[in-house]
Amino acid sequence: MPARIRPYRPADQAALCDICLKTGEAGQDATALYQDPMRLGHVYAAPYGVLAPETSFVAEDDEGVCGYIVGALDTFAFEKRLRTEWWPQLRRTIADPADRPRETWTPDDRLAHLIHHPERTPRAVNEPYPSHLHINLLPRQQGQGMGRRLIETWLDRVWSLGSAGAHLGVAPANTRAMGFYAATGWQRLDVPWGVVFARKRPA
Prior knowledge:
By secondary structure, this protein is an alpha+beta fold. Helix content is 38%, strand content 20%.
């Protein structure tokens, strides 16, 4: 059945983490890679529902929440809030693996390192494209136009709130997602540290 899009609710947090895990390996199920099934979602999905609910949406069908699009209007301000309001609580229960050789790190360890040493979006991206998003959709709703609908919903929201532009990161192995973004009006940026797509607010 077609899914509908609605604003995020606090009760959706577990679903966000579950979907993040089930799409976390370049769009494929990452469940077998992580011992902690919540950790991936606690890094890439859950904080948006808590700290930026005004720019967080879910897709829901007859089986439940089947996808989401979350993001921040102001990336710089959001990263600052993560440093003071989100990462500290996770650090109390998740150890920093920095004292062990990197070659021994598991996927859980790599996420733990991000929690203790979060990355910051470079100004070259953040200034012209201050908003950013994450989007994931379970297979049962893929290929039916829901991804486009989620992006349109989210962009309409951030444009209405005054954003000048938006960006998103893509795993280098996720060639399907790269094709999708290129086909839906996103421009790939020439950056040395990853794969980033961006859009300016329409004139």
